[in-house]
Amino acid sequence: MKAGFNSFGSYMKSLYGESVYKVNVDAGFTCPNRDGTVGYGGCIYCNNDSFRPGPCEPALGVDKQIENGIGYLSKRYKAKKFIAYFQPYTNTYAPVDELRRLYYQALSNPSIIGLAIGTRPDSVDEEKLQLLKDISRDYFVLIEYGLQSIYDKSLNFINRGHNYDCFLNTIELSAKMGLKNLGAHLIVGFPTESRSEMMDMAGVISAMPVNFLKIHQLQVIKSTALALAYEKNPFYVFSYEEYLEFIREFIQKLSPHLVLQRLFATAPDDILIAPLWNKTRQQIIRDIELMFTGRDIYQGKHFVPEDIVKTHL
After folding, report:
1. What confidence score (pLDDT) does residue 308 get?
2. Fewer CB within 10 Å, N or C, the chain?
3. Taking Cα atoms as reference points, which of 8, 112, 131, 9 lies closest to residue 63?
């Protein structure tokens, strides 16, 4: 357990004996919350430029994006093993035959040892999950489900397009079908939630058949509906010190079995409105690790299964 918590990098190194890096892939998917299937406009905070690397362009095709990504990471980190990370928008939002073609196209590169699939809980079914299960017999497969919040009031506020029960049903189905690497993505800082409500999510997530977790602070990004709302009526956002304190407590309340993939977000400065921390990614990683180094602070220290919140809507 590096620095007192289970990091994704350390976990993958324990599996493969060396560091495994993600290669971002934009396969040109859209989202049911954008094309009218469940809604229009997407989630109010969504601007994919806030997390998609510049070279990650669907026009290049899956093969070329992976080739470029591997070339860059190999040169910079001397990396040898990679996961193809289908990240922007909803990466199961296509007919299963098209998904099979795209996934296996990524896996055709001999340096790719698996897939990470970012998607929504309302965009999978048994057929798509069976495809991923079949792939997982030979490759590492991680399904990252966007939850964002366990509170329907927050999901309504962000125009999510599904409720919390949808997530629970999808996680249950995924686990029942034997998919072992299931992830959840949470955002903390919505103005609809109190600090204690945000903190309660640690226990709730720990009780689920989920073994990977991403959590980060709400960011207000240019060219989003959230930016317009913030401009009209600025709401509270985490200061840097407050967020470090929050994440320290949150990690201690998590089950020690959870693998933590992300603990903060860093949108590009030219599109970030708030919060403005003026910290690099490396500085934030260092400060989080320092909180857990050489102290009696570690993931799961305050995790008590019987105290898990049962009612939270």
Report:
1. 52
2. C
3. 112
pLDDT at residue number 238? 98
In tens, the pLDDT along 92-119 reads 999 999 999 999 999 999 999 999 999 9
CB 225 within 8 A of CB 157: no
Contact 181, 141 (CB under 8 A): yes
- Using CA atoms, how far apart are residues 47 and 226, in angstroms rounded to an integer? 10
The whole model's pTM is what? 0.93
CA angle 303, 304, 308 (to 5 degrees): 100
Whole-angstrom Cα distance, residue 285 to residue 264?
9
Separation between Cα atoms, residue 6 and residue 154, nearest integer Å: 28
Low-confidence ranges of the chain (pLDDT < 70): 1-2, 48-56, 306-313
| Strand runs labelled E in 55-139 | 81-86, 112-119
pLDDT of residue 312: 42
pLDDT of residue 313: 38
Helix and strand counts by DSSP (H, E) for the chain:
10, 9
66 Cβ partners below 8 Å, 6+ apart?
Answer: 23, 25, 82, 84, 106, 109, 112
Strand pairing of 272-274 and 220-221?
antiparallel
Residue entry with tokens 């954008």:
34
Structure tokens at 129: 């999950």
**Residue linked to tokens 């795209």:** 102
Within a 13 Å sphere around the CA of 232, how many CA atoms are in the beta-carbon half? 5
Smallest Cα–Cα separation from 123: which of 151, 161, 154, 86? Answer: 161
- Which residue type sits at 7? S
**Nearest to residue 25, comparing CAs of 73, 57, 72?**
57
Residue type, 218: L
Name residue 124's amino acid. V
Instruction: Estimate the crossing angle of helix 126-136 against helix 164-176, to 10 degrees.
Output: 50
